[in-house]
Amino acid sequence: MAFVAIDESDGHTLGVVRLHTDEADETAEYAIVIRSDLKGRGLGWLLMQLIIEYAKSESLKRLHGEILQENAVMLKMCEGLGFEIKTNAEDRGLREADLIL
Q: 2-100 belongs to which CATH class?
């Protein structure tokens, strides 16, 4: 599943969030991309809330994502949304974000 934010005035994509579920349909990996000039304006927060609600409606049990260590804004947002953040054991430059639904 993916949700796309589109500028109605010109049709340009502003941001995208997507889920990819595992074979058991219990866990999903999320990914989010926001246009660079729009970061910090709340669009990422809105899209993440939307995908979390969708995941809950599909009875998923957990959301998972990998975030670069230097992406402090995304790490802070995920923490604010209730994700548990851990350092990736194999790559210390990555953080693992998990949300139990």
A: alpha beta
